[in-house]
Records
---
Amino acid sequence: MRTAFLNYKIHDILKLFFFLMLSFSYGQNPLIMDQFTADPTARVFNGRIYVYPSHDIIPPKGEGRAEWFNMADYHVFSSDNLTQWKDHGVILDQKDVPWGDSDAYSMWAPDLIERNGKYYFYFPNRRKEAADGEGGFSIGVAISDKPDGPFTVHPSPIEGVEGIDPNVIIDKDGQAYLFWSQSKIYGAKLKDNMLELASEPKTFVELPQKGHMEGPFVFQRDGLYYMTYPHVANKIERLEYAVSDTPLGLYTHKGVIMDESPNGTWTNHHSITKYKGQWYLFYHDSELSPNFDKNRSIRADSLSFNEDGTIQKVLPTLRGVGISSAYKHIQLDRYSRKSSDSVESVYLDKEDTFKGWMLVFTDTDATVRYNAVGFGDTAPKELLININSALSSKTSVEIRDAQGNVIAKSKIKATDGFEVITLPVGGKPTGIKDLVLAIESDGVVQVDWIQFVK
Ligand code: FUB
C-alpha cells in the first residue's frame, strides 16, 4: 500500500484530532446534518435566533403511515451566528398531547410566539378520535417560561379551528391573530389568553383560489402586513406573497418569493425573519433524502426588499448564510459559485447522505468560490485540506481570496485515498474573506473540507 503522509507529523495528527473534536457545526445548507427537519419557523429572542421545525422521521416498522410525512416530536435549534446550531433536544412528543392521537406521527409544522414573558408553542396534531386517513387535525398550544422549554401542553386544542400550519402574530395594538391552513388559508383574532379564538375564522378570497395553499406566515414591515404562503400554482409548491394594511386583509397578491424546488420536492414551508439587521428566508428541501421528498431538511438564505417594499426573489444556495469560521471545517462543496461543470458537489456516501458531500474535480483548472470565511485578527499559519488525489500524479492546490491574493499554494503527491494534508499558509488573511479553491491536476481529485490552523 502506498503511503503518502505528506508534511504529516505526530503533532499534526494531535492537532487534527483536537480540531475534529471542535468541528461540529455547519453554516451551509442544509442547516442541520444529523436528522431530517422541515417547516422551519425562525424567531428571535434575546439576541439568539431559534428555529422551530417539524421533525421528519422514518417511523419504526409497522408504525406511522407508509410513503407519507411521519413526525413524532419537535426539537428546537438556536444559534447566535447562523452557523453553529445548538439542538436543545425534544421539546414536545406526540405522547404528551392529551387530546392527540399518540400514534399518529402527525406533529406537523409549528410556530412559537412570546407574550408577557410566556412562550406559546402552536402545533397541529391529529385528534384522538380522528378517523383513519387524511384530516382530523386540530391546533394545540404548549406553554413555557423559556423559548426552549420545558413546555406544558394545554389540555384542549383551540376550539373552532380545524387544520394545520399555525402561525401567530401580535399586532402593534396588542391584538393577536392566528392563521392556519386547510387547503386554503384562514385567519382569526385570538383572545389575550392566546388559547381561544376571539373572532370567527375567515378565508382570504383575494388570494389565489386555484391550487393548494398552506403554511401561512405573516410578518410586519414598515406598516405593511406580508402574508406569505406555499402555493401549488403549477405542479408543486412555490412560495408566494401578498400585502395588506391590516392583518386580516384584504391582501393584494404581489408575486413569488421562491420558485418550485429544483429537485422536485413537493412541499416548501418557510418563515421570514430579521436577525442582526438582515432579513432571512428559512425554508426546506429534501437534499438529504433525494429519493423520498417527505424526509426534508431546513435551509436559510438571505432575503432583500426593493425600495417599494416588494420582495426580491430568493434563489436557493448551497452556501446558505452566516460567516463560516476559518478554524472549523469549511465544507467547500457547499460553494457560493463554481467555474464550470468540471467540478461537482456529490454525496460522500450515497447510502448515508448525512455524511454530506465532497467536491469532485474532473478536469484541470476548475475553481470553486466560498464566500464569507471569518479569520479574526490573527492570520493562520497552516491549512488542512482533506483531499483524495490518488488518481492524479500531478496535483496543485491553491487557495486565494476573491481579489486573487494567494493564501496557500502547494503541489501535493498522489494520496492514498482521502488524507488530511497540512499546507503552509503564505498569505496573511485576516477579517472576512471570500475564498477561491483552484485545483490543477492530471486526473480526478476529490476535496471534502479545508480548515485553517493558527
Ligand atoms: O410537514 C408536513 C406538512 O408539509 C406541513 O404542515 C406543510 O406545510 C408541508 O410542509
Note: The first strand starts at residue 38 and ends at 45.
---
Amino acid sequence: MAPTTANVANEAKVANIKTLTGSELNSVPSEYTYVKNPNDQADASDPEHSIPTIDFAQLTSSSPELRSKAIEELGRACQEWGFFQVINHGVPESLLKSMIEVCHKFFDLPEEEKKEFQSRKLLEPIKCGTSFNVAIDKVRLWRDYLKVIAHPEFHSLHKPAEYSDVSLEFSKQTRQVATELLSGISESLGLEAEYIAKAMNWDRGLQILAANYYPACPQPDLAIGIPPHTDHGLVTLLIQNDMGGLEVQHNGKWVLVDCAPGAFVVNIGDQMQILTNDKYKSVWHRAVVNNRATRISIAVPHGPALETAALPIPELLGGEAPKYIGMSYEEFMELQASPAAYMMPCLDHLRVKAE
Ligand code: OGA
Ligand code: NI
C-alpha cells in the first residue's frame, strides 16, 4: 500500500517511546492501550513451563556420544517448543554486555542525531524507529528499535563510537553459533549437517542486529512491547539486559522466558517451518513491558539469502504432501510487513490449499 501524504505527515509527528516516557507519565496514552488476557498466562512456578536448555559445548563436542545426545535434545526442543536457551556457547559474556551497552547508548543519543536513520524501507541497511510501522499500527508499541544489517554485507554506525567494533565482533560470533545450530538442526532431522545451509545459500544469508528499547511503563498491563508474532527467518538468537519480558506461547499459555545469564535464547523461524513441512514450528512470542527499568533486547534473525525460496525438503516428507508453495525470502518479508498480513500468521499465505 502506498503511504498517503496524511500518513507520512502523521508519522513525522509520532514521538518515540523514549521521548514520551522522558516526561512525567503516569498512565498509558490511549493509542498505546493493549489489554492482555490474564487467563492465558502460564503458572510461573510450574517447572514444566521453562524452555529447554541446549549445551553448545556438547553439541560441538568431539565425542560422538555427547554430540548425538545434544542433537537429539536439539531436535526435541525444536519439535516440542520451537524455543530453547543455548549455554556454554563460548561467546564472552563481556561481548554480549558491550553490545547491549552500545545499543543503549544509541537510544540515548539526542533525537536529532537518530533522525537520519529513520526510514520506511523494509531492508534499509540501517534503520531506527518506534513501534512497528506507525503508518499502519492499530495500537502503538511500547518500544523503539534499531535494525542494522550485518550479513551478507556488514553495515555500521559511526555513533556511538564503539558501535562499529563491538557489533562487528558480536555479529561474527553470533553467526558462528547460528551456523553450528543450523548444522545440528539439519542432523536432528536426519539430513547431512550442511544440507540446510546449502539449500538456503547460508553463505549469503541475511543477518540483522535488531535492538529493542522498552522503557519502564507506568501501567505495564495496559501496554505491549511487541504483540504476538512469529519470526520470518530460519533461526533467531536473542540476548537481553537483566530485565525479562520475552514470552513464548506453549500449549495455549504464555510462558515468560527465564534464561541463564549470558545464554542465548533461540527460536525457530517461519523459513524453518516451511523447510520441515511443519515438523519444527515457528512459535508465537511477544514482549511484555515492566514498570521498574528499561529493558533492552537484541534479536538477531538469521535467514536464507534474499532471493532464496524455502520449500519443504523432499527427504522429510515421508509420503506427506508438501504444505507450502515457494516464495523468495525477500518477498516473504515484504508480505509480513504489509498491512494485509499485519501481525497475522504470514505462513498461511503460502499454505497449499486443501482440494
Ligand atoms: C523480536 C522479538 C522479543 C524481545 O524482536 O522479534 O520477538 O524479547 N523480540 O524483545
Ligand atoms: Ni520475534
Note: DSSP finds ten helices and twelve strands in the chain.
